[in-house]
Amino acid sequence: MAYAAIVILALLWLPALYVTAILITSLLLMPFIVDFVARRHYPDLERRKGGSLPGSLVNSLVALPLYILAWVILLPVWLFAPFGIAVSILLNAWLNQRLFMYDALSEHASAAELKDERHAGGGWLFALSCLLGLLHFIPVVNFLAPVYMGLAFSHHGLSALDATRKRAAA
User: Fold this and answer.
1) Overall number of domains in the chain
2) 152 and 132 in contact (C-beta within 8 Å)?
3) Angle CA(116)–CA(121)–CA(123) in degrees, nearest 5?
4) At what angle do helices 122-133 and 81-105 cross, to 10 degrees?
């Protein structure tokens, strides 16, 4: 019985660590990451400020309870190891996409563009998010994984926004 309690606590500890790292990256580092990527790769992309720090905070406060609830509900799936890992990857991918796409686009997109671009990625964007989520399973790399994900989502989001604006102008 004591071993079961230790396993359950470890399974609850993992998402707590993950969520903390993602939140710190999302709220504190993403403005710097997006600014770095924008200045270096998209200097002509107009900043329409459709999002904000309070918007990012609200986005996080909506996503996190859903993520934690899904994690707790799906905790028994961890009894079947491959399925537990798959559920973890899918939940983390959803959280990554939800938080990082908002932050990547909030400074440059208008409110309408922000809404459209966050949902335009579809399966490809979710696959990217799953792939990036695998970085959290690699020791040592997992410490830098949220920053790398922030860079990837910033590049993807700004590139998609730039392409959308160029298509609309043509």
Assistant:
1) 1
2) yes
3) 140
4) 120
Helix (H) or strand (E) holding 41: helix 30-41
For residues 98 and 59, the answer to whether their CB atoms sit within 8 Å is yes
Residue 167 lies in a domain: yes
Contacts of 42 (CB under 8 A, 6+ apart): 108, 158, 159, 162
In a domain, 98, yes or no: yes
Is the Cα torsion angle 118, 119, 120, 121 positive or negative in sign? positive
Q: What is the 3-state secondary structure (H, E, C) of 51-95?
A: CCHHHHHHHHHHHHHHHHHHHHHCHHHHHCHHHHHHHHHHHHHHH
Q: How far apart are CA 78 and CA 39, in angstroms?
A: 43
What is the distance between the alpha carbons of residues 142 and 20, in angstroms, rounded to a whole number?
Answer: 13
**pTM of the shown model:** 0.84
Task: Please report whether residue 10 resides in a domain.
Answer: no
Tokens 């993520």 belong to residue = 67
The Cα–Cα gap between 49 and 154 comes to: 15
Q: pLDDT per residue over 110-139, tens digit each? A: 988 888 888 777 788 888 889 888 887 788
Residue 119 lies in a domain: yes
Domain that residue 128 falls in: 52-170
**Main-chain phi, psi angles of 79, to 5 degrees:** -65, -20
Residue 84: CB atoms within 10 Å? 16
